[in-house]
Automatic annotation (TrEMBL), chain A:
Organism per entry: Paenibacillus dendrobii
Biological process annotations from GO: transmembrane transport
Keyword Membrane found: yes
Cellular component, GO, one term: plasma membrane
Main location: membrane
PANTHER family xref list: ABC TRANSPORTER PERMEASE PROTEIN (PTHR30193), DIACETYLCHITOBIOSE UPTAKE SYSTEM PERMEASE PROTEIN NGCF (PTHR30193:SF41)
Stated name of the protein: ABC transporter permease subunit
Top-rank lineage group of the source organism: Bacteria
Recorded coiled-coil stretches: none
TrEMBL record, chain B:
The keyword Magnesium appears for this protein: no
GO CC annotation: plasma membrane
Organism: Paenibacillus dendrobii
Name the UniProt record assigns to this protein: ABC transporter permease subunit
Upper lineage: Bacteria, Bacillati, Bacillota, Bacilli, Bacillales
InterPro entries per the UniProt record, alphabetical: MetI-like, MetI-like_sf
Residue ranges crossing the lipid bilayer per the database entry: 12-34, 73-99, 111-131, 143-165, 246-267
PANTHER family (alphabetical): ABC TRANSPORTER PERMEASE PROTEIN MG189-RELATED-RELATED, SN-GLYCEROL-3-PHOSPHATE TRANSPORT SYSTEM PERMEASE PROTEIN UGPE
Entries under Pfam families matching the protein: BPD_transp_1
UniProtKB/TrEMBL annotation, chain C:
Name of this chain's protein: Extracellular solute-binding protein
InterPro entries, per the entry: Bact_solute-bd_prot1, SBP
PANTHER family: ARABINOSE-BINDING PROTEIN-RELATED, SN-GLYCEROL-3-PHOSPHATE-BINDING PERIPLASMIC PROTEIN UGPB
Renumbered residue ranges of the record's region Disordered: 26-60
Organismal lineage: Bacteria, Bacillati, Bacillota, Bacilli, Bacillales
Length: 300, 281, 458
């Protein structure tokens, strides 16, 4: 009997702690999203009060839409570029600010995080100004070293313009991962390094055989997170900086979704792109996890 | 040799890299301030890094503050940010605690749902979300915004706090249980105080995110009385496209940026230690 | 390690909340409209003060709620504030609600979808397209009403419109309130100082551009981020000129008829853009900049010509350097001796099909389309309204008078309202951008747009 009461109490407790949250979550997050995905089965302008059910036609059309493929390519370019750029720099900073004992380490640590607290709108405006061909920072700076005025249109190449969106994305993303890796490094017992130091191991050896294996788990999480946030969120900076142009060359899936759903009056099609983003994210997560599956060493 | 010798040449190179990166972060902030004090003419005639002319146009700030009712938006932002952060924190913490400590049917599945939801492109949901709130008579209201924002914070909060609760030692709960504390008592009297660093971390991250949010705000609020700061900025930016007032635009950007920077400056230790607590077991 | 879960997050919360701010999309170009223009005016003051008190003695009293949606862009909102206040004063029992702002089109969209729109809408700015609204069945059919509608002064509205409304399958859904024209601007003062001739046709345009380039100035800048500027001011007039001044080709294009895009006139027009490109007349910066940036560079004399609309001087009023004097011509692509082609652009007003107070909305139309309000519009927004009037004696800015001269000249081809299908429009914009940076050939331009038109006409 006592046991029964406890069990009942336990269940009541679990329910009171789980259900309200779940309710909020379902009502304000899941329900609208599911409803939006349901629209991917319709031909709907997004501004009309009637819609036509067309089954999977939106998805079939997507296969023949070169912009979708191009956008997906750009997305993966950003994913790969950001993972490489952010992980190298963030790891470097994390190690430099912990293992190298530089002066001002704390100062650097706090300012490097600043881009992460700034709204992406500000970041977009800022970098647009840097890239501005006539009055921008970059060309003005380069012109100091050349005879003629430099007038490169950084965001207007016939191809590969997407490359130019990588620096702002990396710049804005590093701080968080750096803090993460710093935390991981600091949790490695100093004795490991001391022991290897006695054996004459240099910084590189220590990095390769102590630091890297022990922070690999955090790096994996970071890589997954970069992938997810990029596929899902990189479109904001794209829309602010290039609007997907010129000629759709910087379009990513998210910006194309927005373009279709909200400015070209194909909400159903946009919703289908949203479903695509979700599927691509899930598949990529699984693949990345397989790829990175490697024995991790746990401390303690 | 402290921590394995580092070649002095490398040391100098590395330090230089740190300095350069630091400048790349700090300079834009300074630049935003300088440009907030310029007028259009200076924008287009002078070098991007040149100083603003004297007299400095501080009037850009007062102009923004009054012309665009930034004082009102500021208060709205404060209310919405605090309200949704607290609510979101509470919703996330309760679920996270249960998920971390109690196994029940479907608990893993529930956890997965929260995590997977972070991959969904939420911008799609804007229109259905509007209808939902409209039918509940919650558009154009700070309360409605708080409910929605709090819900968007749940997944992230659960994500971080489950890990955090798991990392706390079980002994104290066991001791409290033996003393006859109820499930609720254990949570509120023992676990919540213990998990303060984690809660603060999540809270601050939430504050930063909500403070900068404007898309949902734009759709759910179209009465200037209820605008938040980022919505105000977005409106102003949209308007700027037709009026080109760069100085005031940058002044507005700065007004939105300063509070988050201040929050960050004050709480950076918590942010770092919170991430640490979550990241490393 | 437990942690996979926890830490990852910071960025994530952010992404849950994101979406774009985006550029201005397609701002002022929205609608344009049909028929030869007569006059348009812009005045600071015409007749009896600003407002005769609207003595609608005979009419019944308007009551209930009445909501007006208006976009705030280059024209500002002064006129709207004033006209709404006036209308409210004239109808004290009516509860007028205004929903205005630079993002109002996005903000109100859910309500249109939900069947709960405002009563009255001003169609201007990004993400609001009259063709789409008509297709979506959002707008009230005004055909019959307009036939004998009279404004508050007793004038027949159709008689005083400079540009008649665009017809969709023979029906009228919205009425142009603002009349504008695309065209090419330059600084008269600068041209005089340097001894450059003002262009009157394609040959003289190219000739003076050569001179300008030789003098070290870039001849031509456009708004590459929003290519509808160059399409509206250069490409479409060029197509009409190449089509023997027959405007039906543009109307067929607007109706997404595939053959229209395959006409030789389109190719001829595209080759003119290629010519500009190959002679190095187009400022390289164009491709990545938005309208305000390109306009500023133009005002700073970094570039001599800019394709734009008549709103330009007002939009940039605060930044026009002293001594700057706007020169304007609706088109430069006609051959010497050929007619000037004025591609007009209008912003329209309409009544929602699901309006709850159509009576008030119609009364508001009658109120708005009066001479008094027209002159008030000109005064408060600095742009020509769509109501006829003689402005030659007024103190309207010189470029507006220039434009009026062109629009009323028998030797001008006035292109009526064209709203393209949104997909075709986007395809043309992208293709033109690609053309200006040598990414594609004119043949590929046609190919692409034909593809889009095929899809759209399905």
């Amino acid at each position: 009997m006592k046991l029964g009461t406890t069990k009942w109490q336990r269940n009541l407790f679990i329910a009171t702690f789980i259900l309200p949250t779940f309710l909020f979550f379902c009502v304000f997050m899941i329900y609208p999203v599911i409803q939006a995905m349901y629209y991917s089965l319709f031909d709907w302008s997004g501004s009309s009060d009637h819609k036509t059910f067309i089954g999977l036609d939106n998805f079939k059309e997507m296969i023949h839409d070169p912009i979708v493929w191009n956008a997906m390519g750009n997305d993966y370019f950003l994913v790969v570029g950001k993972i490489i750029g952010i992980m190298i720099l963030a790891t470097f900073f994390a190690i430099a600010l912990t293992r190298f004992r530089f002066k001002l380490s704390n100062f650097f640590r706090s300012i490097f995080f600043i881009p992460n607290v700034i709204s992406v709108v500000v970041i977009g405006v800022l970098w647009n100004f840097i890239y501005n061909p006539q009055i921008g920072f970059l060309n003005s700076f380069l012109s100091l070293f050349t005879k003629d005025k430099v007038d490169i249109t950084w965001l207007g190449f016939t191809s590969h313009t997407i490359w130019m969106l990588l620096p702002p994305a990396i710049w804005a993303g590093i701080g968080f991962y750096m803090i993460l890796l710093i935390a991981a490094i600091q949790s490695i017992p100093e004795s490991y390094y001391e022991a290897s130091g006695l054996e004459g191991a240099g910084q590189w050896t220590q990095f390769r055989y102590i630091t890297l294996p022990l922070i690999w788990e955090q790096m994996k999480v970071s890589i997954l997170n970069i992938m997810m946030t990029t596929l899902n969120g990189s479109f904001v900076i794209v829309m602010i900086m290039t609007n997907g142009g010129p000629d759709n060359s910087t379009q990513v899936m998210g910006s194309y979704l927005y373009q279709m759903a909200f400015t070209q009056y194909h909400f159903g099609y946009g919703a289908a792109i949203g479903v695509l983003i979700l599927i691509v994210s899930l598949i990529t997560t699984v693949i990345l996890q397989r790829l990175m599956h490697q024995e991790t060493i746990e401390i303690s | 040799m402290k921590s394995g010798g580092l070649n002095p040449i490398f040391k100098i190179i590395f330090f230089a890299i740190l300095i350069i990166w630091g400048l790349s972060v700090l300079y834009p902030l300074l630049w935003t301030l300088l440009d907030a004090l310029k007028n259009n003419d200076q924008f287009f005639r002078k070098m991007p890094w040149s100083l603003p002319d004297i007299p400095l146009l501080w009037s850009n700030f007062t102009y923004v503050w009054s012309e665009f009712s930034f004082d009102k938006y500021f208060m709205n932002s404060v209310v919405v940010t605090i309200g949704s952060t607290l609510l979101g924190l509470f919703l996330a913490a309760t679920t996270a605690y249960v998920l971390a400590r109690y196994q029940f049917k479907g608990s893993n599945f529930l956890y997965l749902i929260y995590i997977a939801s972070m991959m969904i492109p939420f911008s799609l949901a804007l229109i259905p979300l509007f209808f939902l709130l409209n039918s509940m008579h919650l558009t154009n209201s700070s309360f409605g915004l708080i409910l929605v924002y709090a819900s968007t914070l749940i997944a992230f909060g659960v994500f971080v706090l489950v890990g955090f609760f798991k990392s706390l030692p079980k002994e104290m709960e066991e001791a409290a249980a033996i003393d006859g504390a109820s499930y609720f008592g254990i949570f509120f009297k023992v676990m919540l105080p213990l998990s303060q660093p984690g809660l603060i971390t999540v809270g601050i991250v939430n504050v930063l995110n909500i403070w900068n949010e404007y898309i949902i705000g734009t759709i759910l609020v179209n009465d200037p009385v209820h605008y938040t700061l980022p919505v105000g900025i977005a409106m102003m930016q949209a308007q700027m496209q037709y009026r080109t007032e760069w100085g005031p635009l940058f002044a507005g950007l700065l007004i939105t940026m300063v509070p988050v920077l201040v929050v960050y400056m004050f709480f950076q230790r918590q942010i770092a230690s919170g991430i640490t607590a979550g990241a490393v077991k | 390690m437990v942690s996979k879960t926890r830490l990852a997050a910071l960025g994530i919360a952010a992404l849950l909340a994101v979406a774009p701010l985006a550029g201005c999309g397609s701002s002022k170009e929205e609608a344009k409209q049909p028929e030869p223009a007569k006059t348009d005016e812009t005045t600071t003051k015409t007749d009896e003060g600003t407002k005769t008190e609207p003595t609608d003695s005979g009419t019944k009293k308007l009551t209930g709620d009445f909501e007006i949606q208006y976009f705030v862009g280059g024209y500002g909102d002064k006129w709207w504030k004033k006209v709404i206040a006036d209308f409210q004063a004239a109808n004290p029992d009516l509860k007028v609600k205004e929903s205005g702002g630079p993002k109002i089109n996005d903000q109100m969209k859910p309500r249109w979808v939900g069947g709960n729109p405002p009563d009255f809408v001003y169609i201007d700015g990004p993400n609001l397209n009259d063709r789409q609204m008509v297709e979506d069945g959002q707008l009230e059919d005004l055909t019959d009403w307009l036939k004998d509608a009279k404004n508050i002064d007793g004038d027949k509205i159709t008689d005083i419109l400079a540009q008649p409304p665009q017809e969709f399958d023979g029906k009228v859904y919205d009425i142009p309130l603002v009349l504008n024209s695309w065209g090419v601007f330059w600084d008269k003062a600068l041209f005089q100082e340097k001894g450059w001739e003002e262009p009157t046709d394609w040959q003289s345009f190219l000739a003076v551009s050569d001179k300008i380039k030789a003098a070290g100035t870039t001849p031509f800048i456009h708004t590459g981020k929003y290519p509808y500027y160059i399409n509206g001011a250069i490409l479409y007039p060029a197509i009409v000129s190449a089509n023997n001044n027959d405007i039906s080709i543009l109307q067929d294009m607007a109706a997404s008829k595939v053959e229209a895009f395959q006409q030789p006139a389109v190719m001829t027009a595209l080759k003119k853009i290629v010519e500009l490109r190959d002679k190095g007349f187009i400022d390289k910066a164009s491709i990545q900049i938005n309208h305000t940036d390109s306009q500023m560079l133009f005002l700073q004399h970094k570039d001599a010509f800019i394709p734009n609309g008549l709103w330009l001087p007002n939009e940039m009023a605060k930044d026009v350097p002293g001594g700057f004097s706007f020169g304007f011509i609706p088109s430069v692509t006609q051959d010497a001796g050929g007619k000037v082609v004025a591609n007009t652009s209008t912003a329209n007003v309409a009544i929602a099909k699901n309006a709850k107070n159509k009576e008030a909305a119609k009364a508001f139309l009658e109120f708005v389309f009066s001479k008094a309000q027209a002159s008030q519009w000109a005064e408060l927004s600095g742009a020509p309204s769509n109501i006829k009037g003689d402005i030659s004696a007024s103190n309207a800015p010189s470029h507006v008078k220039d434009a009026a001269k062109y629009l009323t000249d028998a030797n001008t081809v006035v292109v009526p309202a064209i709203t393209f299908n949104a997909d075709v429009d986007k395809a043309m914009q992208d293709a033109t951008d690609a053309l200006t940076i040598s990414k594609i050939t004119p043949e590929q331009w046609v190919e692409r747009v034909v593809e889009a038109a095929k899809k759209a006409s399905k």
